[in-house]
Amino acid sequence: MYQVDNGHGVTLHCVSWYIEGKRKKKHFASLTQAKQKFNEVKLAEENQTLNWESLSEAEQIELLQAAKLAKGLNVTLADAVRGAIKQGGPGKPTGAKEAGSKYVAHLKAIGVKQINKPRAAVNQFYDHFGDIEMDTLDRTAIQEWVASNKAWKAPRTKNGKLNELATWWRFLKREGLEVGHTNPFASPTPDANTKGIVRHKDLNKRVDILTLEEVEKVLEEAFTCPTVVAVIVLCLFCGVRIEEACQLSWADIDLDEEDPTIDVGPEVAKSFKNGATSERYIHLTPNQAQWVKAAKAAGGVLPVSLNLYQKAKTGNRYYEGHTYRRTDRGGKLSKRNIKEVPGAVPTLKGRQNVLRHSFCSYHVCAFEDIGKTSHVAGNSPGIIKRNYFERIKRKVALKFWEIKPPMSHLKG
């Protein structure tokens, strides 16, 4: 490769080579194109035995397919081969186990706080498909798995799992792992007519809330079980989330007569994707303070494991009259013993977030202050207005706040 002047003050880059004793040369205005041609010529000289005519028809087709894949990745075929070698060998498949471990390690390394959701989605995928090679995923099989998963009832949950898995695949692709060329978890793109998994429709049903009769029944059941009573009172009367209440200790709750408060600190409060938290001080009314005192006098346990709370509240959801269940983990059947745990508050069975929905509805409809409810519940004003404002009549909401704990509870 050398430079020549074309006689008009323009420098051209020339590459010359020999084929069967005859000299060939080509001029380029771009140095990058000249270097690319030079590298091709050099590679051909180093591999004199490798030429198109000497290849079989099957080898020619395979080479053309490889070139097409490299073009789709916007890299040269040589760079694609070098990249494959760098990743551990040409075409080395990536299993779901290895891919999941790398993704979770990456999330931890960059300091992602809400790691449970993506980690759960990846683990659940591995539990169902086993250590499947990531470049052999079938979109139809994934769609059937998500649609038939009994643990994911709400459309929002199914869509969330698919989105988490789609993000996982994109990370693996950026890392250069062998995961195929099309994201099997992604939703279809109408403008590009790209095939994908259509997301499940959320019917926007009205939030589920407890009636006044159900509230009294729930409280009656809760006060028979120390494991759940404190959490239920904090959620139903004070606006604390279940996950937050389970992490609180009695030291975080000041039942001072003049100014009773609950301190939902940053280590306990819900974390949002933008890095903010719903940390807050909740100032209690005299009636709210009475309910918290009654829960404490009843032996309410704080803090408590979230899993233990859920089991004690509505029973072991996996127990259906059998002492064990079989699961298919990557084609292998495993046996798991299941213990029967009777639920202390059967009224709440199958009614997800009903305690929080009830608090927000009764609070904003009674006091008619969206900002105040937003602060106490740790939600944005928009969510409070959209889901809970004018959900029930004010006179009914006021009766909720007139419910008082029996004196027997206060005495312990």
Structure description:
- This protein has 412 residues and is mainly α.
- It has 17 helices and eight strands.
- The radius of gyration is 32 Å and the shape is elongated.
- The termini are far apart.
Distance between the termini: 94 Å
What Rg, in angstroms, do the CA atoms define? 32 Å
- How much helix is in the residues? 40-55%
Name the shape in a single word: elongated
> How many strand segments?
8
Strand composition percent: 5-15%
Query: Structural class per helix/strand content?
Result: mainly alpha
Output the number of helix runs. 17
Overall pLDDT, averaged? 83
Which secondary structure elements does this structure contain, and how are they paired or packed?
Blueprint: E1 2-5, E2 11-19, E3 22-28, H1 31-46, H2 57-72, H3 77-86, H4 96-109, H5 116-129, H6 139-148, H7 155-174, H8 212-222, H9 226-238, H10 242-247, E4 253-254, E5 261-264, E6 280-283, H11 286-297, H12 306-314, E7 324-329, E8 332-337, H13 354-367, H14 370-377, H15 381-387, H16 394-400, H17 407-411
